[in-house]
Amino acid sequence: MTFPNDDTGQVLAEMYNEGIDFSIIHKVVFFQLFEHIEDAQAMADHLAAKAPEMEVNLHADETPNVWDVDCAVNMLLDYDAIIAQEAEFEQLAAKFNGYNDGWGVEA
Question: DSSP secondary structure string, the chain?
Fold first, then answer.
């Protein structure tokens, strides 16, 4: 299996080479960062209202004065789907003065 030559493609290639099953649904977590807890809370509240099935976790980041909103989506490990979901979170986070900071899969 081949993947595009970018960060997402590289991560997926590493996962594939480690034997992760791409034919099953995984919990993919997308990370949003905010400088103000009020903005992070506003995005978390928005998601709770608009996507109640989504697992959303607001917590303090390891970096002082930074807040994380982690959004877990059950999905296949598909390059195009991950890129599209990440773009949606980037646009949404920007509305609340934050930004998307990548994604990962819960082990």
Answer: ----SSHHHHHHHHHHHTT--TTS-EEEEEEEEESSHHHHHHHHHHHHHH-TTSEEEEEE-SSTT-EEEEEEEEE---HHHHHHHHHHHHHHHHHTTEEEEEEEE--
Q: Indicate the number of domains in the chain.
A: 1
Q: List Cβ neighbours of 65 (8 Å cut-off, separation of 6 or more).
A: 35
Can you tell me the distance from the alpha carbon of 93 to that of 91, in angstroms, rounded to the nearest whole number?
A: 6
| 92 occurs within a structural domain | yes
Q: What is the CATH number of the domain that holds 77?
A: 3.30.70.3450
Q: How confident is the model at residue 106 (pLDDT cuts 50, 70, 90)?
A: confident
Q: Give the domain extent around 88.
A: 26-105
pTM given for the model: 0.93
